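User: Sequence recovery, please. Input:
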């Protein structure tokens, strides 16, 4: 059983056939992103791993942001020219991002249409990668349209609050 909770709401997903080995593999499999987005997006918002004073403290936080943007666009995008593979759901969990990791799993299940996707961890991570890739393209496009002016946090807040969410 996987239990995912959020404030006053508690989601429980029963996975009788999902074993611990699958969950370990799900959490250990490294995420991928296209090489171009290291400079274009990730380093703009999380320049140094663990450094204070930027929008995101860790690169994986920027990846998670891109994944959410991608999930909102409703269009996954295959990866080309893969760059670093430096973090996983376990990395997120171990660095204070357990709820973010859980949210990515929930979004993955929602996009797949059922929990069966978690039985094949490689497919689940690939689906998250493809939505993050779509999000990176969208964020890079927005950066081209409206380059950073002022603080990075200001840009991120404008990006979040100006976003149109599809119905």
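Assistant: Recovered sequence (167 residues):
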């Amino acid at each position: 059983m996987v239990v995912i909770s959020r404030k006053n709401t508690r989601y429980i997903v029963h996975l009788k056939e999902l074993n611990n080995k699958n969950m370990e593999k799900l959490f250990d499999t490294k995420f991928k992103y296209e090489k171009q987005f290291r400079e274009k997006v990730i380093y703009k918002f999380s320049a140094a791993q663990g450094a204070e004073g930027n929008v995101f403290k860790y690169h994986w936080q920027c990846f998670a942001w891109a994944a959410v943007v991608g999930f909102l666009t409703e269009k996954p995008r295959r990866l080309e020219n893969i760059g670093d593979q430096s973090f996983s759901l376990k990395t997120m969990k171990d660095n204070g991002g357990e709820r973010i990791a859980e949210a990515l799993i929930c979004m993955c299940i929602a996009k797949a249409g059922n929990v069966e996707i978690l039985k094949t961890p490689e497919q689940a991570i690939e689906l998250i990668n493809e939505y993050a890739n779509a999000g990176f393209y969208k964020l890079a496009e927005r950066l081209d349209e409206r380059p950073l002016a002022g603080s990075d946090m200001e840009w991120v807040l404008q990006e979040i609050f100006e976003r149109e969410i599809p119905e």
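The longest strand covers residues 2-6.
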